[in-house]
Amino acid sequence: xxxxxxxxxxxxxxxxxxxxxxxxxxxxxxxxxxxxxxxxxxxxxxxxxxxxxxxxxxxxxxxxxxxxxxxxxxxxxxxxxx
Length: 82
Hints:
It is a single chain. The protein has helices at about 15-25, 30, 40-60, 65-80. By secondary structure, the protein is mainly alpha-helical. The radius of gyration is 14 Å and the shape is globular.
């Protein structure tokens, strides 16, 4: 009895959304790229991603993106640049 749970899918990102995401991350780069892993820094990073997601969704035309989705997309973009 394997019950497979499908993950939520959203529409594909368009180029303007990727540019918006990168622009927002560059503004908060000092916080998001901080290497510290303590509780205070983790909370600040989480709040920053929440703020970033709200700003992204207010400017995006292609639908809602969650904080988790945006963070994942940014990580994939960073891997692609290496």
